[in-house]
Amino acid sequence: MKRVVFSNVQSDKLFEQVYDYLLERIRRGEWKAHEKLPSVRTLALELNVHRLTVFKAYQLLKQNQKVYVKDKSGYYVQPSNLLQMASQNDPIISAYVHESHLSEIHQVQATYQFSKALLDPNLLPNLYFSEYVKNVFDLYPKVLGTYSTTQGDRELREALCGYFSNRFHFHLSPDELLITSGSQEAIDLIARSLIKPRDVVLLERPTYSPAIDVFHREGATIIPIEIHPHGYDLEQVEMLMQQYKPRLFYLNPTFQNPTGYTVPVDQRKRLVELAEKYQCLLIEDDPYRDIYFGKEPPLPLFSYDTAGCVIYLRSFSKYIAPGLGIATVACRPSLMKYLIKAKSLSDSGAPLLNQKIFLHYFFSERLQQHLVKLRTALAVRKEIMEEELSVTGWKWSSPTGGFNLWVNLPESTPMDRLLAKCLEHSITFVPGSICDPRRELHTWIRVSYSYMNEQQLRDGLKQLVTLSRSLDLEEV
What's the angle, vertex CA 222, arms to CA 88 and CA 347, rounded to 5? Predict the structure, then answer.
């Protein structure tokens, strides 16, 4: 192999070059999954650098989940799918033990799906929906023979501009909106467009699990920011922005996933000020805004942004029409051009038929009336879940909206065994470690009340509590 020499570089930056070099070799497949990497000593000789430089590069690879360590053996390549490491074939158990992706948990077929933060299909106005599908074919007879533009159907973008302006005081043009196939695609486009290896990204702790995976994939250095029922410690936020100069802060400030917390309005305004001051983009993910159980939540951060430092993601997939997979990204033209370019490399735009159906369905009076009923139904289900869990002594903050309860179990609960027992009884939930950038929070779980009907909720929760108590007795 050709000898590589690093020179004329400051010593405090040299390890970053070594990191990039090693990461590129892993990406090219020169070292395969689970293959042992050269020792620190060997690589230092090969690259003509100090052993400490190689060690620091390896530690950064480990931090970014590109390699893993076997005690007294060395560094090994982390497979792109972490479940390949699992000794068990069971996705939910593997997810806990090996910190896998949330998607692996969703693949588990179970009777009681507390892991799915999706809407019960029976709560959708399916009869109304079918009528709008028929109307779309009458209005656009050639819709199946036409592509959308990459940026999205202009008629839909114009309608959404009016909606955002009237509801949230956004000042937008249709050219400042991009239609995507869900918010997860939007996060992926942002990461691919704006993040390069070693860029610092701030993430809430806990946070939406796929966001962790996406930013790790791009080689970002992730710095967690704790979120609490009252929001953030803004002094901590400012200190981290000042110290690390992060490229962006991904946050979900309204009925946050997984906690259900909502950041108050004064903090929203201050966050925008800090983002402008420290040149840090705020990526505001807002998928649950319409699902509130009392008064409406505060305005989005984007409403207070005058400097173009907020990118707003609004998904309509979870509670309007999950099968359509419609979301939108709002940002200023200087950023939009990069997102459109990234989108064009993936596809030719979200399916036009889906966009036209959504356009006429979402803005209909029927759908807006149905949202009122939907909020009531979900509030009842949340109360049922809290009632069934009230006998446990477990702790949580009751959310005022969204789909999830974020629950803290006793330290003595053997979480791995609880997961195994639940799966045996056809019950799923999301372990807290999945939602933690540090892969800790082992006593927390996310349970969703949105996907099952009221009787299923009661039956499944009773079984979950019984299984937990039986394990507690075994521990004693």
Answer: 80
Backbone angles phi, psi at 388, to 5 degrees: -70, -30
With a CB cutoff of 8 Å and minimum separation 6, the contacts of 466 are none
Per-residue tokens: 296: 């409406």
Query: Taking the model in full, what pTM does it have?
Result: 0.81
Closest Cα partner for 283 from 350, 339, 324?
339
**190: which DSSP letter?**
H
CB 93 within 8 A of CB 419: yes
**Amino acid identity, position 333:** P
From the list 362, 99, 337, 291, the residue with the least C-alpha distance to 212 is 99
Percent residues over pLDDT 90 in the chain: 62
First to last CA, the chain: 58
Distance CA 448, CA 396 (A): 13
Residue 83 pLDDT exceeds 90: no
**Torsion sign across C-alpha atoms 65, 71, 72, 78:** negative
The burial of 253, by beta-carbon neighbours within 10 Å (0-12 exposed, 13-18 middle, 19 or more buried), is given as buried
